[in-house]
Design goal:
three-stranded antiparallel β-sheet; binds S-adenosylmethionine; 2 domains; 382 residues; globular; 15 helices; single chain; 23% strand; binds iron/sulfur cluster; TIM Barrel; alpha/beta; 16 strands
Length: 382
């Protein structure tokens, strides 16, 4: 394993939203006052980023992802200040992918043109649904008209953009899902993420489970409908929830799934870097925005650091690469971990005996059956 050859990304977390959605367990908090925290937070991010420079080991960043939360609340001039700092402190690939997540309830044309002009070249919008009734049930701050307006603005300013859509929503029928698919396809984005609604612990939905969540067999049909409709429309189903037009896979997320390295800054953000001696280090930052800012300004944003033991690496590696429908080449294991194929042979033999991985194994990939029971395959390597 040569750490110098492992691609490097940067994740930046913005922890605020206009309102907290009842299904969401991301580290996101409602902005309670009219005070704009952009300036103070960007100061904190810059301190945090400086801490990470040594981990880059002179590698070029291949992607930057500004996620949240709702980072489309950041004032463009503050985001520009931060991007300039990144470019001055780190090497950045000339074709770097820079994504910003946006909520359709926070979109205006001037802001989006400004984001494009400061170097953001990919937008990811949380549409969730085009059905006003379902949007209400999801507690979203926007309606379908706002979604259409936001898509129009995205089309005008960004040639590369993603829409997030959720399915298996309370009371949703297969017919209603067809409508969502038609609307999503008509938006002509380069990428779509279709997520099955999950009831995450510690969310409002987990405490008060909404009525009429579709039955598992309907959800299965819904997943089939999503995949077949999007493939017919020219999208490649390349990851569990990810669909891309040819050549438009999300480079940032692909790097996670190929067990690449990533620096991180922002409240609760996690990084994973491989040191020159092959040690894999994970760091997690303070979660609460106020606590994060306080610590970051004193150059101590990291709350936990741990070395990923050799025994944990098989599971971590499989957890990521098997999410890709095409899987990953066998060589990637020794390129990205301290393991050899022999170390994980018992797990592979077990998965093959259950028909979950193919025999012979030319890549790390699941069979169709393994794809349907992905978490079972991944757990074999625990
Ligand atoms: C951090 S959000 C990004 C965008 C922005 N915050 C918004 O919601 O508009 C990432 C995406 O994860 C998905 N998501 C969040 N919670 C989910 C859940 N419980 N089940 C399924 N998908 C979820 C949503 O599609 C959401 O857009
Ligand atoms: S806007 Fe996005 S990040 Fe914020 S609470 Fe809703 S789903 Fe979560």
């Amino acid at each position: 394993m040569r750490s110098a050859d492992i691609p490097l990304s940067l994740y930046v977390h913005w922890p605020w939203c206009v309102r907290k959605c009842p299904y969401c367990d991301f580290n996101s908090h409602a902005l309670t006052s009219s005070y704009d925290p952009s300036h103070q937070y960007i100061d904190a991010l810059i301190h945090d980023l400086k801490h990470s420079i040594a981990y880059a080991q002179n590698r070029e960043l291949i992607s930057i992802f500004i996620g949240g939360g709702t980072p489309s609340l950041i004032a463009p001039q503050e985001l520009e200040r931060f991007l300039e700092t990144i470019f001055s402190l780190l090497k950045v690939a000339s074709d770097v992918e820079i994504t910003l997540e946006a909520n359709p309830g926070t979109v205006d044309t001037a802001h989006f043109k400004a984001y494009r002009s400061i170097g953001i070249n990919r937008l990811s919008m949380g549409i969730q649904s085009f059905n006003d009734e379902l949007l209400k049930r999801l507690g979203r701050i926007h309606n379908s008209e706002d979604a259409h307006k936001a898509i129009k603005i995205a089309q005008e300013s960004f040639e590369n953009f993603n829409l997030d859509v959720m399915f298996a929503l309370p009371g949703q029928t297969l017919e209603e899902l067809k409508f969502e698919l038609n609307e999503a396809i008509a938006a002509q984005s380069t990428h779509l993420s279709f997520y099955q609604l999950t009831l995450e612990p510690n969310t409002v939905f987990a405490k008060h489970i909404p009525d009429k969540i579709p039955d598992p067999d309907v959800i299965y049909q819904m997943q089939d409908l999503v995949t077949s409709s999007l493939e017919t429309a020219g999208f490649e189903h390349y990851e569990v929830s990810g669909y891309a037009k040819p050549g438009k896979r999300c480079r940032h997320n692909l790097n996670y799934w190929q067990f690449g390295d990533y620096l991180a800054c922002g409240a609760g953000a996690h990084s994973k870097v491989t040191l020159k001696d092959g040690t894999i280090v994970r760091e997690a930052r303070f979660m609460q925005p106020e606590s994060y800012i306080k610590h970051a300004i004193k150059d101590s944003a990291v709350a936990h650091e741990r070395v990923v033991a050799k025994e944990e690496q098989a599971f971590e590696f499989m957890l990521n690469v098997l999410r890709l429908r095409e899987g990953a080449p066998l060589d990637l294991l020794s390129e990205r971990t301290a393991l050899s194929l022999d170390d994980i042979q018992p797990g592979i033999a077990k998965a093959q005996s259950l028909g979950l991985m193919p025999q012979p194994l030319n890549r790390f990939v699941t069979t169709d059956k393994g794809w349907d029971f992905l978490s079972d395959v991944q757990e074999i390597f625990l």
